[in-house]
Amino acid sequence: MSYFVAPGSVVRRIWGTADTVLFIFAGAAAEFALNKAVDWLYFTGRLPADPLGRLFSTVDYARQIVFADQAGAERAIDAIAAIHGAVEARRGEAIPDWAYRDVLFLLIAYSMRAFEVLERPLTGPEREEIVAVFGRVGQRLGIPGLPNSYPAWQVARAEHLARNLAASRYTADLYRQYRKHLGGPRYALLRAVQGLVVPPGVGALLRLPPGAWIRPAVAFYRRTKRWPASQWAKSLLLPAAYRARIDALNTAPLLPASPAPAPPPPRRCPMH
């Protein structure tokens, strides 16, 4: 059977561990809030209404891609394209190409950063593999201008961070929603984790703490991660109502093989 991501890939290891996935989306939640195209995330009203639910929806799609066979992954990617295409049609304009690249870039960045914070340094080939996997996702979506190597991605990522992020009224509102849905203590923990994983410029724009107080807990996790009691992030970062969905992140989703979907048409209205 042909897989979109090889069974032994580091990408599967990253996206098959609940704590790592939660750290990825802690960082992504911070950077999303600063993106100059964040108004697109507000257009349907679903993100501010249920930020945790949207997190799990995004996780579900990402894990379908990572763990599915080739045809199933392509179907999941095409479903993402269709969703965004429908939003674009409702709004009557296209999401900018750079905004799509930003999303792929931050998934690459926080996949690497979360794994290295919680596990170990990545090797050069592992970094290239992460870039290649998400690059194939972007190619299927028809996103132009994607880097084809880790060094090229580093250059493009730095340019995007410098050009496409700014604090706005959407930033402030999204963080109010994070606090509302998480509660004070979990919100403080979220910001601490974000301060640990985001680039310095992102942390400065959001006035995040540097993450110093959480570093001892992360060091303890790395030493005791095989103990059941050490799986602390999934228990502390999100409310108990999400416990079953968090626990499910530690196992590969059961996805049946399926016929290959037709490729999406050439992209002008991005992602569809």
From TrEMBL:
Q: Which residues form the ER-bound oxygenase mpaB/mpaB'/Rubber oxygenase catalytic domain?
A: 42-213
Q: Which InterPro entries match?
A: MPAB/Lcp_cat_dom
> Could you identify this protein by its name?
ER-bound oxygenase mpaB/mpaB'/Rubber oxygenase catalytic domain-containing protein
What lineage is on file?
Answer: Bacteria, Pseudomonadati, Bacteroidota, Cytophagia, Cytophagales
